[in-house]
Design goal:
By secondary structure, this protein is of the alpha+beta class. Helix content is 36%, strand content 23%.
Length: 154
């Protein structure tokens, strides 16, 4: 899983080192990189494995091919996605388009979200994190914990 947060600087050539734990997780799934695209909800980038983007593509394909919604999702996610490959030192180059969307200049924050991760400008993430923590507290009763035995909640 993608866990924790890691801050790294962008070098003079526009490359950033991806956290070793993230690279290891992706490598364990047979990938030498990841897919990223601009977030709908934040000035950040969404990032995931190839199989996760294929799952998202399948969900989009399941929509009626003649509905506008299908085109909106495909255009906003799939056409904006970039396949980033690690170089020999575990770095990737983020395009100018992605950097502009996330308002990233010199420093990147990789934020683990379990099966996916996000890439943020660190200060913007700190502001979002305060709001997220407050909202998570307010909605904590929505998070159900299922016990493996008889489906009881504990």
């Amino acid at each position: 899983m993608f866990l924790s947060s890691y801050e790294n600087k962008i070098d003079k050539k526009g490359r950033v080192s991806v956290p070793a734990t993230f690279r290891s997780y992706l490598g364990g799934m047979g990938y030498n990189g990841f897919i990223t695209y601009p977030s709908f909800n934040h000035s950040a980038l969404e990032a995931c494995s190839q199989d996760r983007i294929e799952k998202l593509s399948n969900a989009i394909d399941s929509l009626n091919p003649f509905e506008e919604k299908r085109d909106f999702f495909a255009t906003s996610i799939l056409s904006e996605s970039e396949n980033l490959q690690f170089d020999t030192e575990g770095r990737v180059s983020l395009s100018e388009k992605l950097l502009l969307h996330a308002k990233i200049k010199n420093t990147v924050l990789f934020v683990g979200l379990g099966k996916t991760f996000q890439i943020w400008e660190p200060y913007n993430f700190e502001k979002f994190k305060l709001v997220a923590r407050k909202k998570a507290y307010q909605n904590r009763s929505n998070l159900k914990w299922e016990n493996k035995q008889k489906g009881e909640l504990s």
